[in-house]
What we know:
The protein is built from 5 helices and 3 strands, in the order H-H-H-H-H-E-E-E.
Amino acid sequence: MMNFAPPWQANQLQTGKKRERAGQVCSSEVMTILIHVHQSHYRTFKAYYTEYVQVHLKREFLHLVSYTRFVALIPRMMLPMLAYVQRQYGVCTGLSFIDSTPLKVCHPKRISQHRVFAADARRGKSSMSWFFGF
C-alpha cells in the first residue's frame, strides 16, 4: 500500500475539499478486514464486523471504528483493492475455471419473443430446470 498511495493521490483530481485528515483505521487494515470477511463463515458483513471483528480482533486492530463508519470507508478502498487483486494474479497457464451457473435471459415461455440475445443465447438444462440464456 505504501508504494500505491503516493502516485495514486498525486494523479487524483482536486475537489473542493482541502482537508485530508488521516483516519483512525489505516487503509491496509480496512483492506485486510474486507479480504478476511470472504474467508469467514458469516453470511452478512454486518454480522461479521459486529460479532467477530469488534469482539475477537480488538487486539489486532487497535483503532476500530463503528460499523457505520467502517461501511462509509469501504468505497474509498475500491481502487486500492482492485490494484491489489490485479497484482495477485498469477501467470495464465491456459487453464481457466468457470462457474457453471446458468445466466437466464428470459422465461422459457418467452423464448420465441426474445430478440436481444437471440443470436447468442441458447436453450440449456441445469441441475434445477430448463433455461434460455448462457
